[in-house]
Description:
mainly alpha
Amino acid sequence: MTRWLKWAIPGTAALLLVATPLSWAQTNSVVSVYSIWVQFSLRGHSQGEIESLLRNMDPKTLEQVKDRLRQNVISNLRLKKIERQFQASRDTDDLNSVRESIATEIRFAGLQNDDELRFLIKEHFGIRFEKL
Length: 132
């Protein structure tokens, strides 16, 4: 048992030293730009402001980040069962609640001016966001 412990501790330490740089090397730039975008949006920056702050980033990376954000918004709206709420709405207060839920998700994603996201909302849920 002692002999095993004698080699286990240095072996574990060596494994950690070797494995850590490999995981750092696999970090994707899209993930870090995504995190930056989300941080800016949660601080209250609009889409235009965020895009201005990230104007030196690769346009392809920014488009990938926006696609990921769009999918997150659609997923969150599905979890909120927004389509069911919209179909069950009986008056303006119900419609305002649906509109506020959608607007909140869009604002948190920092995609206030994104026409493609509005199109996706219409396609997935049958809701024309501009009409609410």
